[in-house]
Give the backbone structure.
Amino acid sequence: MKKLLYLASKNLGKIGEYQKLLSDVNCQLALQPDSIDVLESGETFKENAAKKACEVSKKLNNYAIADDSGLCIEALNGSPGIYSSRYGDNDKSRINRVLRELQGINNRNAYFIANVCVSSPEGEIILDIEAKCFGKILSSIRGTNGFGYDPIFEEISTKLTFAEMSNEIKDKLSHRGKAIAKLIPELKKIFPDY
Ligand code: IMP
């Protein structure tokens, strides 16, 4: 029987995404029960990902995977950072706030970062992966795909915004795509095929 791997998230979109990405790994992905609530109280992306994975593992006595990601802007001293999802009420207001805060500022350097942690059934972090994607913040939106800050983030090598990319290209270049690519061979060692 396949070992269970709980995804420490209540986001149904995320479980679909992980199911697809981990289809090659010999584990059964399960969603964190509604009764478990983990506060994202860490001061870094890594702390938040580790805390979510660890708490879910300990409560369920099983393996758990968690991630935390966001946008860090150089001229804003790394903001919105760990507050990326809380920088406004919705994607539009979060984008507008960033554009407002960068008005008149020439340094538009920014990166997306993703931290992914896996913890053992005992709650010990056994995998800890970080990946970044560098780019620039535009002064107005470009493109219609994606979510979050995608329309204002121009990826450095393609000069396309994440919102102008197909899913396939974004998966190759994005912080999350790179983190998952590093994660899969490591997960295969924890969940071998035999
Ligand atoms: P979380 O990792 O689900 O907590 O996401 C944090 C927040 O960072 C999201 O709500 C988005 O606002 C932002 N974010 C993370 N990854 C991306 C991305 O690939 N594109 C656009 N925004 C992102």
About this structure: The beta strands are 3-7, 27-31, 63-73, 109-119, 125-137, 153-155. The chain has one domain: 3-190. The first strand starts at residue 3 and ends at 7. The pocket of inosinic acid is lined by residues 67-71, 84-85, 112, 146-150, 162, 174, 176 (CB under 6 Å).
